[in-house]
Amino acid sequence: MSSVAFEAINWNRPTSELAQVFWDQQWKQIWFPEEVAVSKDIKQWQSFEHQDTYKKVFGGLTLLDTLQTNVGMNEISRHVTDLQEKAVLTVFGSFEAIHAKSYSYIFTTLCKNDEIDEVFKWVQENEFLQYKAKKITDIYESIEAGDDASLWKAMFASVMLESFLFYSGFFYPLYLGGQGTLRNSAEVISLILRDESIHGVAIGFFAQQLFAKLPQQKQEELTVWGYELLLDLYQNEMKYTEDVYAGTNVADDVKVYVRYNANKALMNIGLEPMFPEEEVNPIVMNGIANTGSTYDFFSQKGATYAVAKVAPITDATFDFSDKGLK
Amino acid sequence: MKPYVKLNNDVLQRYRATGDIARHVDEEALQQYLQHEIAPRYRTYTTPVERLNALVEEGYYERDFLMQYTPEFIASLYEQAKGYNFQFETFMSASKFFDSYAMKSRDDAEILEMYEDRYIVLALYLAQGDEQLAKAAIDALFTAYQPATPTTLNSGKQARGELVSCFKLSMDDTMNSIAKNIGYCLELSRLGGGVGVNLTDLRPLGDPIKHIDNRASGVMPVAKLLENSFSYSNQLGQRNGSGVVYLNIFHRDIENFISSKKPNADEKIRLATLSTGVVIPSVFFELMKRDEDIALFSPYDIYREYGKRMSELSITDMYDELLNNDNIRKLKYINARKLYTDIKKAQFESGYPFEIFDDNVNDAHALKGIGRVKMSNLCTEILQYMETSVITDETEENEYGVDVSCNLGSIDIHAATKHAHFEQLVDTSMRLLTAVSTMTTIKNVPSIVKGNHAMHAVGLGAMNLHGHLVANGIRYGSEDAIAFTDVFMEAMNYYSLKSSMRIAKERGETFDQFEKSTYASGEYFEQYINKEMPQLNDAVKQAIGSIPVITADMWQQLKSDVQQHGLFHAYRLAVAPTGSISYIRSCTASIAPITEQVEVRDYADSRTIYPMPFLTAENAHMYEEAYTIDAYKLIDMYAAAQKHVDQGISMTLYVTDQWTTEQLARVYIYAWMKGIKSVYYVRQRLIAIEECVACQV
């Protein structure tokens, strides 16, 4: 007979500040890739000049989301002690799975099978991509039970992934979509972004709570570790960008965008930004803003419908005496 | 990357960062675009007439309409047009025009039309050789009148789609009718139209076929067939076909119908691209108010018992009879409040279904002595009576009923208030719409030909209301705004009636069965000849500008003129949503509030940034966005306009994710009580994570 009593999750008593908020927000924005008519991009795709770059960008993103589903969210959620936070992280993990699948949906729609196989082979062979995957995975897998510092490190790595490393890839569809090229694929990306930005904020927030409980010496040590990791990943990311975007002349713009997002990631986790402020290409910035763009009823699905809050109709619903109606 | 795209995007970035509306940056984007993208591609000629001749020779323009005019007259129209000195005001306007409206060479390399070229061809084409009308058309088109997209886009071109955009069909409860109507949908969709189909008369899932129970598949599979037809037939790939299906809320299949648009609906019934609308009789609201159950019926029973289709009856009048008649099955009872909550839920999650308030529509219907309005169209502003065709076997003649095609146009309210002759402006607009109606024959859909021929229906609407109000320092939804809308729309109604009467007199022809209408009986005019003159304050007077305020005496005179000469058009007014077409003219859309001060507009092929017309740093504080405007005030605005509009007004409601289904239901109920005829989309702004968490973290 075990002496440990199993505890049931009780949403009635908030145990984590904001867990409910993150939960609600994530479910409100549920979506499925099949709702976006990517097939409308096929015609443009056939004459698109930089198919190779585009495919690699999506290959890279697929790998990162796969990691985040299979390792990241699972490991972090396993070690987080708060039951509500665990639940939120599990939900996030499901969305990561939708993301990873949605890249395949785009691939399947635009590319032939042998092309797709080739991209997945490239993913396995690209040294920079493999480097960041390994770096992050190692941190995820080194969480020790009961050790808050190692858990914080994993959260830090997760925020780096979601708020920083993804963006060298997100850049391209947003940049093209903003100029009217492959707009529907860009719409899928903007839906993914909408989720990743909650994940970044939420995990950053949980990490900050954890951080605050650590002794000051540990905090300083972790801060140094964090900046070192970021710098390491950053240098790799610059090389990755050069490699993937070779031949497109947007690599410099991508780098600016990567630095901008590195700063955002640091702010999510509660640390000072590291890179000087630069002007990001406005086309890409407009693609990332999370408010709904105006919906053209004859075009794509709008990215702005969400789950309803149900409340019953009562007698009071029909009382318009305040509006001067009987 | 194209530098003007970057500049245009810069406008939004600056606005987000500093709240500053960088018009000069957008202006620079516009200039760069015109200089580097458009000018080098524009094919030039020495004179306009030479240009027209060359383009006729190459098969770009039709020859016949140009032959109706002398070269001298055409040249003089170009001079006249030049006098209006048209300039694009924003990058958005120019890029939309050149992307979507200007004629290009077949290889897409050359631009063959500037703005003036397109609108002059439009005037020449629609005036059909009438020089006086052509001149008046130039004046109207270059000041305040804008025909709908299909007319603007297609007029005068050799390779073109139809001039009308909007159709309504009624489907009957027979396989012949279903098959025929699917064929019509393919045909109309090929021509670029949006098609509304009434499904209310189809027997529901599980109904008998040839008296054998449980055989019918219901309305959803038919809706799926329609959806696939619209996707397939897409106007040379230019625009995806679009359609909407309507169902009465008392129809047995209503529950499946409502869930069909939800993203997580069963794939068998899920409608991805077809729009849906529900027809709601007042008795539904009464039952809901009393918290009662409603009975769901089968049109099959109704037809067998009464010899009438379900959509041909007023369910409000017949509800008790249907309940008490044992030959009418009560297929299911469902709580009205619960059903309506489900509808609100679906609207939050998908924007659908649209709603048509059946009795508000039919009580105000001037042709109620002729027939019922059963449904609406794709944008919920067309509300016309229809008669179901009887489609027989191939060996027999079909009995064609009356279906609907409607051509639309809009008056720019701001420009209209500055126009010296509002009466003439409305008259010209009506004549140009009439031309479209008489020039159109949708030969493969006989019921539409018949309807068009009998009704000459048109739909004149308005746009730029919000822009105009702000330009005059009036807030959308305020008492002054409501007063202005009331006076303006009344003048539109008056002058469109007067124009229709005059055209009937000139042609010696009225619409079919005019004598049975409330125009002929005079009942229609009661609300006006007994009215009191509104007391208007200075702000409203200033906003009204040169538009005459119509008096009871004027109405009295018009009443007797109409009774004497009749009306040419069975339907005259309808306010469409006007998307891109208003942007070309730098107008705010329809009579709707703006949704964002600086808008990001996604089309299938581009993303552009559009600062709203008249927006300045000084008036930004009063240029309220739709999501922050009190929904009840918005409805008051539409109700003020609706009183004067014989058909409908496309009204979108705006909610945020903070709303509950109950709050949304309440707004709809209010709209129904205020006499609103139809509600178009529910649009939701999801409050972004930055907004909802940033204030807490």
TrEMBL record, chain A:
GO terms assigned for molecular function: metal ion binding; ribonucleoside-diphosphate reductase activity, thioredoxin disulfide as acceptor
This entry's comment on the bound cofactor is:
Binds 2 iron ions per subunit.
> What processes in GO biological process is this protein linked to?
deoxyribonucleotide biosynthetic process
Q: Where does Fe cation 2 bind?
A: 96, 162, 196, 199
The protein's enzyme class: oxidoreductase
Swiss-Prot/TrEMBL keywords: Deoxyribonucleotide synthesis, Iron, Metal-binding, Oxidoreductase
- Is Metal-binding there in the keyword field? yes
* Keyword set includes Flavoprotein: no
**Which N-terminal residues, if any, form the signal peptide?**
none
Q: Main role?
A: Provides the precursors necessary for DNA synthesis. Catalyzes the biosynthesis of deoxyribonucleotides from the corresponding ribonucleotides.
Q: What is the protein's quaternary organization?
A: Tetramer of two alpha and two beta subunits.
Q: Which family does it belong to?
A: Belongs to the ribonucleoside diphosphate reductase small chain family.
What is the designated name of this protein?
Ribonucleoside-diphosphate reductase subunit beta
TrEMBL record, chain B:
What does the entry list under GO cellular component?
A: ribonucleoside-diphosphate reductase complex
The residue ranges of the Ribonucleotide reductase large subunit domain are 555-577
Domain of life, source organism: Bacteria
A single Gene Ontology biological process assigned to it is: deoxyribonucleotide biosynthetic process
Among InterPro entries, the record links this protein to:
NrdE_NrdA_C, RNR_1b_NrdE, RNR_lg_C, RNR_lsu_N, RNR_N, RNR_R1-su_N, Rrm1
- Recorded GO MF terms: ATP binding; ribonucleoside-diphosphate reductase activity, thioredoxin disulfide as acceptor
Signal peptide residues are none
Kindly report, in one word, the top-level EC class recorded for this enzyme. oxidoreductase
Q: Does the keyword Disulfide bond apply?
A: yes
Is Disulfide bond one of the keywords UniProt gives this record?
Answer: yes
Q: Which reaction does it catalyse?
A: a 2'-deoxyribonucleoside 5'-diphosphate + [thioredoxin]-disulfide + H2O = a ribonucleoside 5'-diphosphate + [thioredoxin]-dithiol
Keywords in alphabetical order? Allosteric enzyme, ATP-binding, Deoxyribonucleotide synthesis, Disulfide bond, Nucleotide-binding, Oxidoreductase
**Pfam families tied to this protein:** Ribonuc_red_lgC, Ribonuc_red_lgN, RNR_N
* Its EC number(s): 1.17.4.1
Recorded family membership: Belongs to the ribonucleoside diphosphate reductase large chain family.
| Role noted for this protein | Provides the precursors necessary for DNA synthesis. Catalyzes the biosynthesis of deoxyribonucleotides from the corresponding ribonucleotides.
What's this protein's name? Answer: Ribonucleoside-diphosphate reductase
